[in-house]
Fold this sequence. Notes:
By secondary structure, this protein is of the alpha+beta class. It has helices spanning 2-87, 91-153, 157-200, and strands spanning 224-227, 242-245, 251-253, 258-266, 270-278, 281-286, 290-291, 298-299, 304-307, 316-323, 326-328. It has 2 domains: 2-200, no CATH class; 210-333, Glucose Permease (Domain IIA) (Distorted Sandwich).
Amino acid sequence: MRSAILLRAAVPQIERSVHDLKDEIDVMSRLRADITNQRQRIGNTALRLDGEHKRLKELWDRKSTLQYAAIAETEASEQRVRQLAGEAQDLRELMQRLEEERQRRILEAAEKAAAEKAARDADLAARKAAHEAEIAAQKAARDAEIAAKKADKERKEREMAEARAAREAELRAQAQAREAEIAAQKAARVLENATREAAEAKPMVSEKPIASVQGKMVFPAKGSVVERFGQPNEVGVINKGISIATRKGAQIIATYDGQVAFAGPFRGYGLLLIIDHGEGYHTLLAGMARIDANVGQKLTAGEPVGIMGEDEAKPALYIELRRQGQPVNPLPWLTAQKSKGHG
Length: 343
């Protein structure tokens, strides 16, 4: 009888304990589900980071390709100019071929700019993906913090340990996402530099049109004008330019801003330098013993481009100015110096 009374008194307490235990089991189940979801988000973030690493490698590979292409393009341009010089039968044909080559380079530069824009668009997409990965990592970190607080409230040491482990994993994922974003920004700067270098390789156009500087172009060298435009020379051929008697070893300079279209030997001229000033204007300089400029090089007025010979008894620099391939008298374009030059 006493046992029955004691049992009857203990039943409510046992029921309360069972109810409390059931609540604790439910809490633990929810925590486990939260942790499972957290692990899944960590896995998704890791996959995104792996994708970003692959995109970064592609960006570096593209940068290397651009560098090698720029070097190859420079070498090909010089080879092409030498080939044109060998194929041209006269100076008029050379000028025509050089103009066609310049138009081809302009078209190639436009195509390259389009390719570079596509590369920049790809880089922007990579940075956007890195940013999305960062946001996902931050959200996962917040979820991990909530899970940790919930585990602390229920005083479940094991769940707290798992939550802390998840939190540490999220912090690592967040750090990796930041590193991916930094690397993407660095790759963007590399692409920007490559784009700027490619833009610098485009044909130069002076900010001040050459037509506005008639009478203000500098003489390429000091000396007296010994042969004039339109007059017959010593062998009876009509001069298409002028000749200046210079001192031995004289420094030769560019008459105006432009870009070197040709530099090298050409039939009947010896060493010939052709400078493209834009708007169809070209300066031709011949008679030098050495040319200090390369095809594609950008020049400014007064910049050294060559040296006269030391061994010639009477060194003379020959100058032509051509407009749309036709010779014009260069003297009215040069600064008036009473037959003397400034160069």
